[in-house]
Batch of 2 targets.
Target 1
Amino acid sequence: MLLEVRDLAVAFHTRDGEVPVVNGVSLAVDAGETLAVLGESGSGKSVTAQAVMGILDTPPARVTGGEIHFQGADLLTVSAEERRRVRGARMAMIFQDALSALNPVLSVGFQLAEMFRVHRGASRAEARDRAVELMKRVDIPAAEQRVGDYPHQFSGGMRQRIMIAMAVALNPALVIADEPTTALDVTVQAQVMDLLAELRREHRMGLILITHDLGVVADVADRIAVMYAGRVVEHAPVRELYAAPAHPYTRGLLESVPRLTGRRGELPAIRGLPPSPLAVPPGCPFHPRCPLARDVCRVDRPPLYPVSEGRRSACHFWEEAIRG
Ligand code: SF4
């Protein structure tokens, strides 16, 4: 495996002590593979991604347990300098909001070229040529003319393409995309997802796609890990998960996909809201919202039960869930 996360735990430091926000998360992604990590906001998916990238704010967040193996090394035990080197060249991240991730006072061409100058020792002219090439590769029209333009002069979709260009510039082995299309309209979302899938194939890179929307990952992901209250609750190959989810929460997410009518923050097919990390219910954390919940669910936390080869579910009644 290119990346293997084992039993990762992350806690936020608060005035009242440490609050666990990621609890024993295990994930893996191989070269050329796409893993989608799915969950509502507060599920711990972005914090997991930040822990892998080594960009958790410290304080208030810190890794409290687990291992993150990347290309043979445990990133939690290497020096800060080695971690920075990995992050610069072998692992890259794409953020939701390209406008705040790009530097507003530098042209996009300069920002792209700088990657080649700093990490590859390219001359100014070479680096500029590489920047233009990359802009063409991510389909920025009139790249030669626009290389000197600033981030605010591009549309949201174009800015996201530029962020993707920056992420893949140094040919990283792993790219983590955190809600890369959430701020875009539906047509542009599909184009950006296609571009990511194409680049992943071309460069055989591993891709982790963090999202709250099952609708955007169906065509691009190989496997999906569904997170709830800081834990993975279902992990499955994408086709099997879509055909018959083995966890009531996944089923609720799937049933919410085409509907946009719920109140803000609410999934139409699942009643209630996810718990705060300060008040995670005992037993199965999903029990207050679960249509299949019974007494045992309020007391016993379900482990990740094996469902089939490569598939697991943290539901005591996964067989019932899978039958629908
Ligand atoms: Fe629902 Fe119980 Fe399964 Fe949790 S363990 S998802 S509450 S049926």
Target 2
Amino acid sequence: MNINIELTEHSSHEELSLKDQGLIALAINQLQTSHSPYSNFRVGAAVSLENGDSWGGSNQENSSYPVGICAERIALSVASTQSPGEIVDTIVVVYSDPRGVHNAPLAPCGMCRQAIREQTYRQEKGIRMILTTQHGETLVLKNADDLLPLSFTLEKSK
Ligand code: THU
């Protein structure tokens, strides 16, 4: 068995559609709302929904470290509560790293991959994922679930 991830690489945001660029701008704006005094690592996320809504989120840390929540799960939760029942089409993830250690797109943590997987079960449709940097380097994944193959679920597989 082979497990494949279908993605495209881009070196600038201009290579993407205007709609994607708008969603990336929303995710970048969300960096300002990050509460990350412990890591100083800001993460912004934005989701677009099939009904045209889009929502953003950012990482929210806590002095009790495990209480902190990643940007992706905030954005998904905002979408789920503010536009209940709507289908998530695309999720963007961007970050700002004051240490300058990273300059390539970063992929979501395992917990967020599981949360995204749950959303695709709920909506019975895959979610595109745009992993990007503020400078433009970008990976576009056709289906974010590809990042969590053989995943756990309580649902009966179809
Ligand atoms: N973080 C996210 O927001 N998303 C991820 O997918 C990985 C990590 C946050 C958690 C923490 O606030 C900071 O990045 C550093 O780990």
